[in-house]
Amino acid sequence: MDVFDKLKAQITDENLMEFTAILPIFSLQDLICTYLAILVNYLSISIEQNQSWQIQESIIQLIGAIYEYIPSDEDQVLPRIFLLLPKLNFSNSIIINTTLIVLGRYSSWLGNHQDILQNCVHLCINALSNSELIQSASIALKELIKENRIYMSKYLNEIFPIMKSVLDNIHVQSNDRIRCLSIIGYILSVHPSKIVIDHLNIILVPEVNKLLDYLSRIDNNQENICTTLNFICVLITAIGYYGNQNDGEENEQQLKTTENSINPVKKETYDVTLSKSYIDWTTCWIQQCLNDPNFPTSSAKRHHRETLLKVVTSKQTSRSNFKDHINTFSLACRETISQEN
Question: How far is the C-alpha of 98 from the C-alpha of 69, rounded, in Å?
Fold first, then answer.
């Protein structure tokens, strides 16, 4: 009998009949909250009785399965659950991974309960030092930061060194590295431009140097070049993220003030602002890439490459213009652009 069967066996036929009889009376939200209350009771009992991590992990999974139906203002049951999390039997990496994944799913709710969010952040940060937990910890931390950038910005000095350590680890999977770059980008996105540039000098410069090294080799590996370019793009895109926030109305003015201090140019030009900050490097490595007639494909002609380089390094490039030229170049690479262009 597996763990789920054991849990199901604890519900007697009589209780099930009583529960079924009242179903028409309640709304779906009421039923979900009732279900959640049952789960928190089981979780509390499992902790008090020091039950196996498998049972506790199953309950956490069930809690994570209904996150979409939990209202953001629910403050009766979920706070109890999150207060119980540090008391779980973390004797196996599986239950830690499950707990971290559930934290990420409740990132929006946690944004409205920042007193609880603080403990969850430290759980994610501590887990990043374990190679078996990097994936789930980075997933959870990415969601927490993406949904609550202003609140999470204060953890920059705590998170950044750990992210740098993960990125420097050659054994870390590519997807995990990309996720860590997104975390850095999201948390930097609400900081002033000087702080952004200071941290980019630490993170971005090694990647650019790596790219230049790949390009300087006669037998350059296009896979390595594309991977490095992808890392750079992920970081810059995350820094330019302006998604919805759950930091509360009281922080709306702070968000506007912070975003205005990030860069004096308009938001439309923000995505390419970092290229202007490193204009020499940008011109150099893009030019080296585009000088190769087979990069990324041989379909793009010389005038396509020259136009793209001109747009990327221009001081007056708007987001829409930049996007249009990228699309045009992409079409040229796929041989779908008309001959007259």
Answer: 19
